[in-house]
From TrEMBL, chain A:
UniProt superkingdom: Bacteria
Cellular location(s): Cell membrane
Protein biosynthesis listed as a keyword: no
Assigned protein family: Belongs to the ABC-2 integral membrane protein family.
Pfam family, one: ABC2_membrane_3
Name of the protein in its database record: ABC-2 type transport system permease protein
The organism's taxonomic lineage, starting at the top: Bacteria, Pseudomonadati, Bacteroidota, Sphingobacteriia, Sphingobacteriales
Membrane topology per record: Multi-pass membrane protein
Keywords in alphabetical order: Cell membrane, Membrane, Transmembrane, Transmembrane helix, Transport
UniProtKB/TrEMBL annotation, chain B:
GO molecular function list: ATP binding; ATP hydrolysis activity
Keywords noted in UniProt: ATP-binding, Nodulation, Nucleotide-binding, Transport
PROSITE patterns: ABC_TRANSPORTER_1 (PS00211), ABC_TRANSPORTER_2 (PS50893)
Annotated InterPro entries: AAA+_ATPase, ABC_transporter-like_ATP-bd, ABC_transporter-like_CS, ABC_transporter_ATP-binding, P-loop_NTPase
Protein name: ABC-type multidrug transport system, ATPase component
SUPFAM superfamilies found in the cross-reference section: P-loop containing nucleoside triphosphate hydrolases (SSF52540)
Domain ABC transporter: 1-218
UniProt-listed Pfam families: ABC_tran (PF00005)
PANTHER family from the UniProt entry: ABC TRANSPORTER ATP-BINDING PROTEIN (PTHR42711), ABC TRANSPORTER ATP-BINDING PROTEIN NATA (PTHR42711:SF5)
Keyword Transport recorded: yes
Record Gene3D superfamilies: P-loop containing nucleotide triphosphate hydrolases (3.40.50.300)
Length: 368, 288
């Protein structure tokens, strides 16, 4: 045990003394979250919205004023006829249109019930989805304030139309994707280098001529990165909650537990690469090309897997990030519990176990 | 066909002996060390270290030997003390337990114990590496070219340290490409191209040198050797530092040779008898 603790301490020293790498390890997730986050939020702030107000009554004016007051929209101008709508969207500057039918206020007051048509440019499905959500929220807010002063509730039904991409394919949230990506990068690459580094510097030669156990070396190499990566998960979640306003809907504890599992998978993958290669450069290349690319392509984060050819869909099953992406989405966004993701969890456990066994088996106890 | 690194090598080292493997680069020294320290598997043959067979009992051997590879192989980003502590715990011991053994060496690097190993000078690095190899009190110590790339003063110190370790009963196998270090060993094996040319004590090797050697110097070295090789009574002649070492087929007259060399256009001629060294012996072996 003392031997093990000493091993771990040594690995920590290696990690903590390499300042540049440490900076990358902690800086990368923050940078990625901010880049991905603000690339999206910047566009959503002050989106151009056009109004076709056929009613021009107090209710429609109030809703327009509320929308204008929000930081998400910039009301561009009023249209005078319906024919203009299409050409305005085709110009591409307008992201959303709001159509009030004639007599909007009257039907609301007398029938307690009115309709608004919301038309969104869904060529960017993410943005379209979010914008309609914003508008719906503002309308609902107005509806609620209206209902307070009355006995029977008022209902305003936004009728949403997604232009260009009605099914909103590929509309995912990016935080789970970035999480999978960052953990994959940090864990696989760093551990991939770690053992091969000892081979290159020759310290492995001395270590071999000693009573150490391979499993001890493997585990002690992974522990610093496990802890660092958990810190990264924490910083990503903090950023997404406080900077990007994306809450964690499910259990944070479960999310951390699953992250730990995925980190372990990545670490064993890194160890596997490290055991199989003989130079740091090769290890780096394999983890970048061989791991990062499939993660981006086959996790479902950027490209929908359902649209891929059958063979590639099959292949995506061995990409750990795919399963982790599903897990994080389920917990974070859908707010589901463990019962919904046990299958994905089991797959990750299996991948980890297989990699660990192969790594241990192929750990060379001699030089050649 | 691949050239074997080591071929038909057989030797025995006595307990408590300081045994040297001497040979130029590529002679097979490192390969022999790696086979004995269980790092490489030999295609044929067998070897034992302290009663353990190198293939079957590799775990046992790894517990009892100390190994210092030819290349500096400690953690450059750990400090001197951290390296030492780490290797102590790897072998399940502590620095305190075996401090006596390394004390002589460690006191020399102790002032730098908080310095990172990568920032030490060459001689310091070797001393630290030796400490790390000794920290678990090995019964056999394998040192692969410990003095290569080390300054002459540190080299001398290093051999004195080895001598003291031998006094404490540790069997030491050391390799070196420097022939002048051979005399510091109890016995040596001369290696060339993966084969052992000779095993004996350095004294016996020197004694068994058959001819009287002469060291001859002149202002024009190249011309001197060329002229000497043409001289009919010369058996062998080669450059040796600033002199040419020459042996003769029959007892020769110094004035005749001097006259001959003078006629060849050489100046500043100096002729003196000299004792053979291990290097002379090695050269002789290579030619026969």
């Amino acid at each position: 045990m003392k031997q093990f603790i000493n091993f771990v301490r040594k690995e920590f020293a290696h990690v903590m003394r390499d300042r540049k790498t440490l900076l990358i390890l902690f800086g990368m997730p923050v940078a990625q979250i901010l880049i991905f986050g603000f690339a999206l939020t910047n566009e959503l702030k002050n989106s151009k919205l056009i109004v076709f107000d056929q009613a021009k009554d107090p209710a429609s004016q109030e809703i327009i004023a509320r929308i204008e007051a929000s930081r998400y929209f910039e009301v561009e101008r009023n249209l005078s006829n319906a024919a203009q709508l299409e050409s305005v969207f085709k110009e591409g500057k307008i992201k959303m249109a709001l159509v009030f039918p004639a007599g909007f206020n009257a039907s609301l007051l007398h029938g307690h019930h009115a309709q608004i048509q919301v038309i969104a440019d869904a060529s960017d499905p993410n943005a379209a989805n979010m914008l309609t959500n914003y508008v719906s929220a503002i309308i609902q807010d107005y509806q609620r304030s209206l209902s307070k002063s009355s006995l029977s509730p008022y209902r305003i039904i936004p009728e949403v139309r997604m232009l260009y991409n009605p099914q909103l394919k590929g509309a995912h949230n990016f935080v789970p994707g970035v999480m999978a990506l960052v953990l994959m990068l940090v864990c696989v690459m760093m551990t991939a280098i770690s053992i091969v580094k000892e081979k290159e510097t020759g310290t492995m030669e001395i270590l071999l001529v000693s009573p150490f156990k391979p499993i001890l070396v493997i585990i002690s190499k992974t522990i610093p990165y496990l802890i660092l990566s958990l810190l990264n998960v924490g910083s990503i979640l903090l950023l997404s909650v406080f900077v990007l306003d994306l809450p964690v809907n499910g259990s944070v504890l479960l999310l951390f537990a699953e992250s730990m599992l995925f980190i372990s998978t990545c670490l064993t993958l890194g160890i596997f690469i490290s055991v199989k290669t003989s130079s740091q450069q090769v290890a780096m290349l394999i983890s970048l090309m061989g791991m990062l690319l499939p993660t981006i392509l086959f996790s479902g984060f950027m490209f929908p897997i359902e649209n891929m050819p059958y063979l590639l869909q099959l292949f995506s099953n061995i990409v750990p990030a795919k399963w982790f992406y599903i897990i994080v989405k389920s917990i974070m966004i859908k707010g589901l519990g463990f019962s919904a993701i046990w299958k994905e969890t089991l797959i990750l456990v299996a991948i980890t176990a297989v990699l660990l066994i192969i790594s241990l088996k192929s750990f060379k106890i001699r030089l050649a | 066909m691949q050239l074997p690194a080591v071929d038909d090598v057989s030797f025995e080292v006595k307990k408590g002996e300081l045994f040297g493997l001497i040979g130029p680069d590529g002679a097979g020294k490192t390969s022999i060390f790696r086979i004995l320290t269980t790092l490489l598997l030999a295609e044929h043959g067998s070897a034992w270290v302290d009663g353990f067979e190198v293939i079957r009992d590799y775990r046992e051997i790894r517990k009892i030997v100390g190994y210092m590879p030819g290349k500096f192989s400690l953690y450059p980003d750990l400090t001197v003390a951290e390296n030492l502590n780490f290797f102590a715990t790897v072998f399940g011991t502590t620095v305190k337990d075996n401090y006596e053994l390394i004390k002589d060496i460690y006191v020399q690097i102790e002032p730098f114990k908080d310095r990172r190993a990568g920032k030490l000078s060459g001689g310091m690095k070797q001393k630290l590496a030796l400490c790390c190899a000794l920290i678990h009190k090995p019964s056999v110590l394998f040192l692969d070219e410990p003095t290569t790339g080390v300054d002459p003063v540190s080299r001398k110190e290093f051999w004195e340290m080895l001598n003291r370790l031998r006094m404490q009963g540790i069997t030491i196998l050391v390799s070196t490409p420097y022939m002048d270090e051979a005399t510091r060993c109890d016995r040596i094996a001369l290696l060339h191209n993966g084969k052992i040319l000779s095993i004996d004590t350095p004294e016996n090797m020197i004694k068994s040198y058959p001819e009287q050697l002469y060291a001859i110097k002149a202002d024009q070295m190249y011309l001197l050797i060329k002229s000497l090789r043409k001289y009919p009574e010369v058996l062998d002649c080669y450059a040796f530092g600033e002199y040419a070492h020459v042996s003769f087929k029959i007892p020769f007259e110094e004035y005749l040779l001097e006259a001959y060399l003078g006629a060849e256009g050489l100046s500043g001629i100096e002729i003196k008898p000299t004792a053979a060294t291990i290097e002379d012996y090695f050269i002789k072996l290579l030619k026969t």
